[in-house]
Amino acid sequence: MNKKYVYVIFKIVDHDGKANSAISVEETAAGIKENDQELQDKAYEEFSEKLRKVAEKKECRYAIFDYGFMQANATWKNTIIFFQWNPDNAAVKQKMLYTSSGKDFTPKLKGLGKKIQANSLEDIAESEIRAQCLDSSRAT
């Protein structure tokens, strides 16, 4: 994403008369140029709100978030997180479509640091994501 976007949300769409045959960018947000936790937190809050609204519509999405955080050693780290957002209330057929299509889609995305299968708002809670990133950064 080259810091151009802090997040990108993707949706499976119809293409050339074929149902559910393409993955399209649905929404983006401009990248954060500096290591600012407050800006990062605000962007993540906006992002999770977008996914909450998708869940209200009982739909699935893919998303990428350029997540920045302060590590235990007081250095800033960014990691690109891929979210497969399959909320519990989405139709089984749509969940299956996103799961099977995701297997072909994710290898085309370069530089992913983490992949998260999320089914509930608890799965995308900022505290949960931060904890997972901190755990990963300790392991490296």
Walk me through this protein's architecture:
This protein is of the alpha+beta class. The protein is 34% helix and 35% strand. The chain contains three helices and five strands; from the N terminus they run E-E-H-E-E-H-E-H. Strand 3 (61-70) and strand 4 form a beta hairpin. The two termini are 22 Å apart. The mean pLDDT is 92.
Strand order, largest beta sheet: 2-1-3-4-5
Our count of domains comes out at 1
Main sheet properties = 5 strands, mixed
Query: Would you count the extended β strands for me?
Result: 5
- CATH C-level class is Alpha Beta
> Percent helix among the residues?
25-40%
- What is the CATH topology assignment? Severin
Helical/strand content category: alpha+beta
What percent strand?
35-45%
**Any idea what the CATH architecture is?**
3-Layer(aba) Sandwich
Radius of gyration: 15 Å
Indicate the overall shape: globular
- State the helix count: 3
Low-confidence stretches: none
Summarize the helix and strand pattern as letters: EEHEEHEH
The quaternary structure here is single chain
